[in-house]
Amino acid sequence: MHLVPLCYLLWIFQGVLGQFPRACVSSKNLLEKECCPVWSGDGSPCGQLSGRGSCQDISLSRAPEGPQFPFSNVDDRENWPSVFYNRTCQCSGNFMGFNCGDCKFGFIGPNCKDKFLAYLNLAKHTTSSDYVIPISTYAQMNNGSTPIFRDINIYDLFVWMHYYVSRDALLGGSIVWRNIDFAHEAPGFLPWHRFFLLLWEKEIQKLTGDVNFTIPYWDWRDAEECTICTDEYLGGRHPVNPNILSPASFFSSWQVICSQSEEYNTQQALCNATEEGPLLRSPGNHDRERTPRLPTSADVESCLSLTQYETGSMDRAANFSFRNTLEGFANPLTGIADASQSTMHNALHIYMNGTMSQVQGSANDPIFILHHAFVDSIFEQWLRRHRPLQEVYPAANAPIGHNRESYMVPFIPVYTNGEFFISSRDLGYDYAYLAEPAPDFFQEFIKPYLEQASQIWQWLVAAAAVGGVITAIILGLTSLFCRRKRKRFSEEEQPLLMEREDYLGGNYQSRL
Ligand SMILES: *[C@@H]1O[C@H](CO)[C@@H](O)[C@H](O)[C@H]1NC(C)=O
Ligand SMILES: *[C@@H]1O[C@H](CO)[C@@H](O)[C@H](O)[C@H]1NC(C)=O
Ligand SMILES: *[C@@H]1O[C@H](CO)[C@@H](O)[C@H](O)[C@H]1NC(C)=O
Ligand SMILES: *[C@@H]1O[C@H](CO)[C@@H](O)[C@H](O)[C@H]1NC(C)=O
Ligand SMILES: *[C@@H]1O[C@H](CO)[C@@H](O)[C@H](O)[C@H]1NC(C)=O
Ligand SMILES: *[C@@H]1O[C@H](CO)[C@@H](O)[C@H](O)[C@H]1NC(C)=O
User: Fold this and answer.
1) What does the DSSP 8-state code read for residue 456?
2) Do 281 and 246 meet the contact criterion of CB atoms below 8 Å apart?
3) For the CA of 507, the nearest atom of ligand 3
4) Is 426 in the pocket of ligand 3 (CB under 6 A)?
5) How many DSSP H helices and E strands does the chain contain?
6) Which chain regions cross the lipid bilayer (predicted)?
7) Among 186, 366, 385, 430, fewest CB within 10 Å belongs to which?
């Protein structure tokens, strides 16, 4: 299965190593043994002034070599590339290339950011041309006669929507009603977040013109720590203040909105999207009594075996409810509600111990998106396993906003919860790790060859010793963050076949 993409990667890798850069072939270069060309972006060797890299002595391995070539100092290729050059560019971060002018595989743009991260940042800095937010209630707008709305950027639009759907009810004076949430603690939790992510994905596609963009997910099963909390991905920890992000992170300059629910309640006001300070996150610094560990594969399996989507009171006290257990108000191994614990979906929010941990402001942290994409994939597994009829989703008596035909807040035009209680395949997307092989074509034509290939595979590895080592390194590097992006397919095409071609074609570039 991995043969084609790996060979492709190998080919690129060797190509980069074996080239004589045109900029390094003067006699000056050869006599000084230096190949550190200027990067035109800033006029400095290796783009040093821009922090892309620097000119460094190469350090040769001293490990002994086999006896087959009994000479020394007779071939230009010995101790490569020291016969030609003993100083070359060493590129830092996501940069690569002979003058550090290129981006490492999977990164794009002038600063070589991850495509996903670059899109997030663009959304955070682009005012939505289609949507605005109300910054007071209908009554405060004099029952609509004096509209009060304001602009918002595309990322924060989604933060605001998530705040608005989950905010407390303002009852006048200093009275608030907290036991209300149009998207959590009830059956609409899964359809609502599914639609929310799909809408978010579409807005990013419109913003970037990248129709192929899909939201990546973070498979957190059995994670012992926040593996995506590094500066290369969603941000590492600040070296001095453990509650904020490292200054080297893409997200350290982001400001949150809608994080001060108590203040809005006191003022009987809506969040008006004023900036409220940096993202807070301190993974693993949470209350371990409440959340002793992140969810395991066994937790997910056990949760998936619950046959009822929703039960009883249809809220956070529901026993044996798949929804309530996946949401994280029940013990995943028993399905019994337990108010003292935050499990499954909730466990991740609590674990992040910061902006992610308060429902209303949680979408400020981009980890929210990767987390919910994976939660959605578990919902999808349950739908495929239990194949529920629409009637399985409660039609009546669910908490406000959560009945099957209720319109989901705050989307316009209107969509019901029931509309998204269907397989993702019917909504035009799939998850790579759930995709099944196209039965006929795969079974009959591909599988026999794969079986043959797997028999000779070990010999191929042995024969390609050097290639194998490089392959292993690349494989190791990619599998660390190979959280496959959700893959979109068009309804006119055969989805699974396309999925497979894509897989074999070396486009497996997801970084998360
Ligand atoms: C690199 O090569 C130059 C030119 O031959 C030589 O002067 C210099 O000492 C070498 N540096 C190292 C670290 O070998
Ligand atoms: C809005 O309408 C409601 C019901 O008609 C009324 O009770 C209330 O006083 C009105 N509020 C304002 C600010 O006009
Ligand atoms: C999207 O993917 C399709 C199929 O792989 C490709 O033909 C098309 O060029 C891509 N479009 C963009 C904008 O990348
Ligand atoms: C926005 O909300 C904050 C906090 O509720 C409040 O202090 C501020 O005055 C509001 N600003 C505007 C322009 O309404
Ligand atoms: C972080 O965890 C501590 C307990 O370890 C808790 O007291 C605090 O409220 C948490 N902070 C957030 C923002 O969740
Ligand atoms: C859930 O089960 C627990 C333990 O059996 C029980 O105490 C509790 O009353 C049940 N909750 C509901 C809403 O039935």
Assistant:
1) H
2) no
3) 5
4) no
5) 14, 15
6) 456-482
7) 385
DSSP 8-state secondary structure symbol assigned to residue 127: B
* 467: enclosing H helix or E strand: helix 465-480
- Residue 502 CA, closest ligand 3 atom number: 5
- In 160-221, where do the E strands start and end? 169-170, 176-177
Residue located nearest, by CA, to atom 14 of ligand 4: 272
How far apart are alpha carbons 38 and 60 in whole angstroms? 24
* Tens digit of each residue's pLDDT (9 = 90 or more) over 352-400: 999 999 999 999 999 999 999 999 999 999 999 999 999 999 999 999 9
Q: Which ligand is nearest to the CA of 286?
A: 5
Helix (H, G, I), strand (E, B) or coil at 143: coil
Question: Is beta strand 149-150 parallel, antiparallel or unpaired with respect to 133-134?
Answer: antiparallel
Residue 137 beta carbon below 6 angstroms from any ligand 2 atom: no
- Could you give the domains of the chain? 6-60+75-105 (no CATH), 124-427 (1.10.1280.10), 441-465 (no CATH)
Distance from residue 344's CA to the centre of ligand 5 (Å): 18
| pTM across the whole model | 0.74
| Res 127 pLDDT > 60 | yes
Q: For the CA atoms of 194, 196, 200, 201, what is the dihedral angle to 10 degrees?
A: 10
113-119, Cβ contacts within 8 angstroms, sequence gap of 24 or more: 113/250, 114/232, 114/233, 114/511, 114/512, 115/210, 115/213, 115/511, 116/216, 116/511, 116/512, 117/233, 117/250, 119/204, 119/207, 119/208, 119/210, 119/213
Cβ(142) – ligand 2 distance below 6 Å? yes
Residue where the block lists tokens 């950027």:
153
